[in-house]
Specification:
0% of the residues lie in helices and 52% in strands.
């Protein structure tokens, strides 16, 4: 069973930065696509960014140029560097691992952007 543990969320002011981390258990981390999703109150859970085992990245239009996803396969960890944060980035951020046909989710970490 895969466990994903997110960390790094918090309360920041508009324009500030945060870095989220997601540590994964399980073997062969480097093989699988990892993603960050977010869900605001009353909204569906949407893709923020993803990174394949080969390092190919995908971003939601709303975060392009501000967020960067990366991975450290030696540490079984994926990161989300978030710059120039806006109030509309406020949400619970979830880490996801796509392991063949199975999906695994973390418990989420709250990010609040407010002055």
């Amino acid at each position: 069973q895969v466990q994903l543990v997110e960390s790094g969320g918090g309360l920041v002011q508009p324009g500030e930065s945060l870095t989220l981390s997601c540590a994964a258990s399980g073997s062969v981390f480097s093989r699988y696509t990892m993603g960050w999703y977010r869900q605001a109150p009353g909204q569906q859970r949407d893709l923020v960014a993803s990174i394949t085992g080969g390092g190919t990245t995908t971003y939601a239009d709303s975060v392009k140029g501000r967020f960067t996803i990366s991975r450290d396969n030696a540490k079984n960890t994926v990161y989300l560097q978030m710059n120039t944060l806006k109030p509309e980035d406020t949400a619970i951020y979830y880490c996801r691992q796509q392991r063949d046909a199975r999906l695994f989710w973390g418990q989420g970490t709250q990010v609040t952007v407010s002055s």
